Each structure stands twice: as structure tokens, then as C-alpha cells.
């Protein structure tokens, strides 16, 4: 599949250049006013349609995942693009179906056990706290902060509505991602045709840098999610925490948002651990801390060669900012959105070359090609 730079070169050769034309002062003023008004109107429309744009961005991520798998299949089998994409889709669906079939009954039992044991474990923790004056005071204060029944009903109703919206959004994202992956050249060419001729090559190079950066982040994030899920489930199982693999599954899936997996899995794991005894509870905390430290200080640095090097502070504040601006969808897409913003800053504001931006990709960047040899840029991909 050709990249954005190849598309830009092809379009530039297809479109005949227009001769330069001198404009009068009045025409220039009128054009400037129209540009300002159009920019303000476009900014307003984009803000109103921000949810649609986030949905489109999520579809693009799904398409990127499918295209990455498809390109890997083509490299090993030399199949045409269409059959390779179909094989990738069938293989991915088969893998998901097989995982749910193989682990479905086990996971169902684990989650049922988790739902059954959590109230009992919490009651046991309450009994232990009641045995001391400090613990009794903490419980009394916690009861004062507990929400009312109507508040819980409203929260449950809101949560169910959110789940329904999330499921419908997930279906749209999957279908939209499949359509984008099926005809990437069509959509890439259409996007580049909207760009003025003089700016088409820089824009294409920026889009190439964003694509490669997102692809490498997805690869590293998938490995990180796998490590967190397996390590959390295995560690909790070894120390005797019930429903360990269910907690590990939740931790691995939640790790799509960096640093979230351990925190999401930590509360039920600690409650269940202390429900089994003080020693088990302390071992549970130790397992969670160990997984978090190994993930942050060993696994992720080893994966930096296959993903964008995002400083932890930038990642955390990017998640907070995206959550404030766009809500839950912003939190889920915060890290890839941060990657896009960083690439744009490096390309537009700092003026870095595409090869400098891709210096943290999965291979050392190639030397910049001469101006007449655009085709060699595909080697970066």
C-alpha cells in the first residue's frame, strides 16, 4: 500500500499547474476577510461535531490495526491486498471467538465468583476495622459519605445508558474501521486533494509521520497490555486471591489507557486479598506494586523502540486535558491524540524533518532522500 507522500506525488503529476495570477488590492482584502470568516466558522463547526471527529479518529485507529496485520500477512504470503485483508479479518475474528470460547466458561465463573466474594470480603474488612477505635471512626465517616438510594439508582441508570451508547459506538467504530481499511488509497487521495498543491508534499509527510507513530504506539501498547494482564493474573493467582484471572483480564484491557489498568484492578484485588487474610492482602499490594514498577521501569523502556517515546508527565496531563475537553471518549483516546499533537508540534512549530520525527520508530531513520527521489521515502514504512 502506498503512503501519503506517494499519493501526493501522484496527484501533483495528475493535476496541471495553474499559471500565476496577479490579484488587485481589493481582491486580496476580500480574500483575506473570507479566509478569516471561513476559519472561524470551520472552528465552530468542528467544535460542535467533536464527538463525530473522535468517532472518526477511533475508526482510523481500527483501520490502522487492520492494515498493520494485513501488511504483515502480505509480507509472509505475498497475497494481494484484498485476500490479505479478508484473511486478516477472519483471523482476528477467529482469534477473538476462540479466546472467548476457550476462556469463556472460566471467565464467567471467575466473574461470578468475584461478584459473590466482593460483598463478603468487604463485610470481613468492615469487621476488622470495627475491632479498633481508629477503624470504627473511619467506617463511621465513610457511612456519612455514602450516597443515597436514589443517587445509586440515578447512577445505575446513567451507567446503563453509557454502556448502551458505548456498544453502539463500538459497532460503528468497527464497521467504519473496516471500510477505511478496505480502500485506504481512496480516502488518502481524497484527503490530499483538498490540500493546495504547494502544501501537499509537507502535509503528506506529516500524515506519514503520524501514521507511523500511531502504528508503533499500537504495537508497543498491545505488548504492554498483554504483560499487565498476564502478570497481574498470574501474581494474584500465586498469592491466593480469588478471581485472579478475571482481575488480570480487566487490568490488561484497562491498560489501553496508560497507568489505568493497575488502578482499576487494584480496588477489587485488595478487597479480595484482605478478605482472605492480612498476609494475603499485603501480598496482593506487593504484586500490584511489582507489576506497576516492572511495567513502568523495565517493560515500557524495552518497548520504546517500537512506540513513540512519550514522557510520563506528558501522557498523564494529556489524559487529564482530553478528559476535561471530551469526556470519557477523550480519556480513551487521549494517548493517540497526544501523539498526533506532538507530531504536529514537531513538524509545524519546530520545523523538524519527517525522518527526525520518526527517530523513535521501530528502525533507525533512513537518510533523507534527494528532492527528486520521493519514492525512496517508502522505506521508512
**Class from secondary-structure proportions:** mainly alpha
Shape: elongated
Q: Helicity level, as a percent range?
A: over 70%
Report the biggest beta sheet as strand number plus sense, adding barrel if it closes. Answer: none
Give the distance, in angstroms, between the N- and C-terminal Cα atoms.
Answer: 10 Å
Portion in strands: under 5%
Contiguous runs where pLDDT drops below 50 for at least 5 residues: 361-368, 372-381
Number of distinct helices: 15
Order of helices and strands: HHHHHHHHHHHHHHH
What value does the Rg take, in angstroms?
A: 26 Å
Kindly report the average pLDDT value: 76
Q: How many extended strands?
A: 0
Brief synopsis:
The protein has 381 residues and is mostly helical. 80% of the residues lie in helices and 0% in strands.
Walkthrough of the structure:
It is a single chain. The chain is mainly α and 381 residues long. It has a domain of 248 residues. The chain is elongated and about 90 Å long.
Amino acid at each position: 500500500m502506498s503512503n501519503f507522500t506517494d499519493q501526493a506525488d501522484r496527484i501533483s503529476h495528475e493535476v496541471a499547474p495553474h499559471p500565476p495570477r496577479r490579484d488587485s488590492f481589493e481582491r486580496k482584502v476580500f480574500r483575506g476577510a473570507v479566509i478569516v470568516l471561513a476559519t472561524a466558522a470551520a472552528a465552530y463547526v468542528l467544535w460542535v461535531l467533536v464527538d463525530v471527529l473522535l468517532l472518526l479518529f477511533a475508526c482510523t485507529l481500527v483501520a490502522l490495526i487492520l492494515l498493520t496485520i494485513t501488511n504483515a500477512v502480505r509480507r509472509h504470503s505475498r497475497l494481494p491486498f484484498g485476500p490479505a485483508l479478508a484473511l486478516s479479518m477472519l483471523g482476528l475474528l477467529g482469534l477473538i471467538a476462540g479466546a472467548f470460547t476457550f476462556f469463556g466458561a472460566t471467565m464467567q465463573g471467575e466473574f461470578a465468583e468475584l461478584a459473590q466474594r466482593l460483598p463478603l470480603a468487604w463485610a470481613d474488612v468492615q469487621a476488622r476495622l470495627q475491632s479498633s477505635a481508629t477503624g470504627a471512626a473511619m467506617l463511621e465517616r465513610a457511612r456519612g459519605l455514602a450516597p443515597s438510594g436514589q443517587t445509586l439508582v440515578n447512577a445505575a441508570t446513567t451507567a446503563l445508558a453509557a454502556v448502551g451508547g458505548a456498544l453502539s459506538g463500538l459497532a460503528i467504530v468497527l464497521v467504519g474501521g473496516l471500510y477505511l481499511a478496505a480502500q485506504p488509497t481512496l480516502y488518502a487521495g481524497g484527503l490530499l486533494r483538498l490540500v493546495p498543491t504547494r502544501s501537499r508534499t509537507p502535509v503528506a509527510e506529516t500524515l506519514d509521520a503520524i501514521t507511523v507513530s500511531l502504528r508503533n504506539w499500537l504495537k508497543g501498547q498491545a505488548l504492554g497490555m498483554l504483560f499487565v494482564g498476564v502478570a497481574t493474573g498470574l501474581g494474584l493467582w500465586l498469592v491466593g486471591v480469588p478471581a485472579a484471572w478475571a482481575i488480570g483480564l480487566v487490568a490488561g484491557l484497562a491498560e489501553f489507557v496508560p497507568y489505568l489498568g493497575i488502578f482499576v484492578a487494584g480496588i477489587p484485588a485488595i478487597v479480595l486479598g484482605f478478605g482472605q487474610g492480612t498476609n494475603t492482602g499485603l501480598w496482593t499490594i506487593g504484586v500490584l506494586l511489582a507489576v506497576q514498577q516492572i511495567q513502568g521501569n523495565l517493560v515500557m523502556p524495552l518497548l520504546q523502540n517500537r512506540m513513540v517515546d512519550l514522557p510520563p508527565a506528558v501522557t498523564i496531563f494529556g489524559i487529564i486535558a482530553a478528559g476535561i475537553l471530551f469526556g470519557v471518549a477523550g480519556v480513551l483516546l487521549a494517548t493517540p491524540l497526544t501523539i498526533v499533537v506532538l507530531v504536529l508540534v514537531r513538524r509545524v512549530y519546530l520545523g523538524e524533518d519527517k525522518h527526525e520525527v520518526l527517530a523513535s520508530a521501530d528502525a533507525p531513520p533512513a537518510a533523507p532522500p534527494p528532492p527528486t527521489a520521493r519514492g525512496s521515502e517508502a522505506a521508512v514504512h
